[in-house]
Amino acid sequence: MEPIFLKACRREKTPYTPIWIMRQAGRYLKEYRAIREKYSFLTMCKTPELILEITKQPVELIGVDAAILFSDILIPAEAMGIKLDFFEGKGPVLSPPVRSEKEVEALRIPEPEEELSFVLEGIKLLRKELPPHIALIGFAGAPFTVASYLVEGSGSKNFAEIKKLMYNQPQLFSSLLEKVTRTTEKYLKAQIRAGAQAVQIFESWAGALSPSDYQKYVLPFSKKLIASLKEERVPIIHFANGASTYLHLIKETEATVYGVDWHIELNVAWEILGEVAIQGNLDPIVLLAEKEVVEEKAKEVLQKAHGKPGHIFNLGHGILPQTPAENAKRLVEVVHQFSQN
Question: Which of 57, 64, 134, 338 has the fewest CB atoms nearer than 10 Å to its CB?
Answer without folding.
Answer: 338
